[in-house]
Amino acid sequence: MTGLTTPTQIKNELDVDYSTLKRWERAGLRRYSPPIEDILIFLGADK
Prior knowledge:
Elements (H helix, E strand, L loop, with lengths): L6 H8 L3 H9 L9 H8 L4
């Protein structure tokens, strides 16, 4: 739906362990995080 890949999908697709993903994150790979405005709209805090 969003076109994003979950950590589980990456693990399976690349045949790596979760610890490898964590190491990649520590090395600078960034996870997607939506803008705070989107979260506030979703939660109805914009009203």
